[in-house]
Design brief:
alpha/beta; six-stranded parallel sheet; two-stranded parallel ribbon; 35% helix; globular; binds zinc ion
Length: 255
């Protein structure tokens, strides 16, 4: 018979939700952050601290961290598979080693800690949701590298499945890309977590911006829904949910 456990989530909450945002486009600062802060929905923003002037470029995110949102690591170089392109000499995960990716991840984290010095933990986000280097006979997962340096890693999930606190691989947690998704669909996914007491993660890029964006009206619908459901849905940054899961597993003898 499967073991039974008390709920992992605080108070009477029946599900956990993390709203995650990739790449730091301007609409996140201008639209998403003020809306989320006003609604008391702390979220996670994955940034790329690249170039010599990263401190200047990322300066506006210091206040985002101070407001209680998580600043997360999305690597400096944001390298994805070369197979997206038709150029055999293009940079890509296929030509990287685990040592290469580790070097980037460690330096990227160090830089982002300068933006969010008071944040106790930092989660990671796989560029293009891809967790491998090499190809064919040399292909290897870099999830273990992420696990060495971060409390959690966010990947891409399977519709309609969310993460169970007892079984999720915290270093490749599933998320749902909210690309061009209507507000009602985002809410439906979160509602599906409530019955299963799961952790749902939504991934955003731009708001009213870019090919992967969502409309501001749909985003507002989601924010209003989460704001009105504080008592039954715990909305928290990825690092915080991961920490709670680790503590809860320890208390319940789950490895
Ligand atoms: Zn990205």
């Amino acid at each position: 018979m499967p073991r039974r456990f008390s709920s992992c989530w605080p108070g009477d909450c029946r599900a956990a939700v993390s709203l995650t945002f990739d790449d730091g486009p301007m609409s996140q600062l201008k639209i998403a952050v003020p809306m989320l802060t006003e609604a008391d929905l702390p979220s996670t923003f994955y940034l790329n601290p690249r170039g010599d002037y990263y401190l200047d470029k990322l300066a506006p995110w210091r206040d985002v961290a101070k407001a209680g949102h998580e600043i997360g690591n999305h690597t400096m170089a944001h390298i994805c598979a070369r197979a997206f392109r038709d150029d055999p000499d293009a940079p890509g995960l296929e030509s990287l080693t685990l040592a290469d990716i580790e070097q980037d991840i460690v330096e990227s984290k160090r830089r982002l800690q300068q933006i969010a010095p008071s944040q106790p933990q930092m989660s990671f986000c796989y560029p293009c949701y891809m967790e491998h280097v090499g190809r064919g006979p040399t292909r290897q997962s870099y999830v273990p590298v992420v696990a060495r340096h971060h409390i959690a890693g966010r990947g891409k999930g399977e519709f309609p499945f969310a993460n169970h606190a007892s079984t999720v691989d915290l270093h490749y947690a599933w998320s749902w890309p909210a690309e061009r998704m209507p507000g009602s669909q985002m809410i439906g996914l979160i509602e599906s977590c409530i019955g299963k007491r799961c952790w749902g993660i939504l991934t955003f890029h731009g708001i009213n911006e870019g090919s992967l964006g969502v409309a501001e009206s749909d985003f507002r619908e989601l924010v209003n829904y989460l704001k009105g459901n504080h008592s039954r849905i715990w909305t928290a940054p990825v690092w915080k949910v991961a920490q709670r899961i680790l503590d809860w597993r320890r208390e319940n003898g789950i490895r």
